[in-house]
Amino acid sequence: NPGQRVKGKVFEGVTKKTNANIVLARILQYLETPQYLRKALFPHHPDLKYAGLLNPLDCPHHMRREEKYPFREGAVLKRPTKKGKGCFVDCGIDKEVQIDKELTPGMRVTVRMNTDSYGGKHYKGTAVSPDAPREELGTYWGYRVRLADTFSATFTECRYKDGYDLTIGTSDKGDPVDDVQIRHFRHVLIFLGGLQGLEPA
Predict the structure, then answer these.
(1) For 89-109, b where at least 16 C-beta lie within 10 A, e where not — what string?
(2) Which of 40, 73, 192, 88 is nearest to 142 (CA)?
(3) pTM of the predicted model as reported, rounded to 2 decimal places
(4) Are 159 and 132 in contact, with CB atoms under 8 Å apart?
(5) What is the DSSP code string of 116-129?
(6) I want to staple 139 with a disulfide (CB 3.0 to 4.6 A). Which of 25, 42, 133, 174 is the partner?
(7) How would DSSP label each residue in 130-180?
């Protein structure tokens, strides 16, 4: 959530008392979000003052306006609809997309596009899990950012039922990445250590 609350307060930006983890999490969320959704999902915030200078990720879900694909990311619009008719979503294309579910305005949603609706007054779509593009088409569809209070919580609070089946840690005492054979995995967890590596953690 871009407006992440910490201990009952909204994080106010980088200061001497700032939690650097939250700053990094917010920047990572911003970079993962398609450019056409950033204004709607990220209010002006001091942490993101220089985020525009960072190189874009250009992930598969960061689509251009004219690209047609079975899935798109969108932001729910605050626009009235008839009861039971879902809601409208901005998916970064020339027309709004009407989806099947009533969702909270400002919420991010993954939409399965109904290609039969192209050419109509507005496009139609279905709200789906963010995992659907990867599970159905094998398409990389971005990452999720999660803050953990402790090192062990990184494992115990995993959102996947069977946990992570591959864990990778970075350290100057480890093997060079070119010498490592990475096996097939469903869910990977990568630890990026500080200057001293992971050992002090």
Answers:
(1) bbbbbeebbbbbeebeeeebb
(2) 73
(3) 0.78
(4) no
(5) GGTTSSSEEEEEE-
(6) 133
(7) TTHHHHHH-----------SSTTHHHHT-SSTT--SEEEE--TTS--GGG-
* Distance separating alpha carbons of residues 131 and 68, to the nearest angstrom: 19
Coil, helix or strand for 74? strand
Minimum mean pLDDT among 9-23, 69-83, 84-98, 140-154: which range?
A: 9-23
DSSP state of 152: T
Summary mean pLDDT of the chain: 85
Model pLDDT, residue 15: 55
| Token couple for 72 | 């798109």
* Residue 134 CB partners (closer than 8 Å, separation 6+): 140, 141
Taking the C-alpha atoms of residue 112 and residue 129, their distance in angstroms, rounded to an integer, is 9
Tell me the β-bridge partners of 74: 109
Start-to-end CA distance of the chain, whole Å, equals 26
- Whether 5 shows a pLDDT value over 60: the answer reads no
Residue 109: strand, helix, or coil: strand
For residue 148, is pLDDT > 70? yes
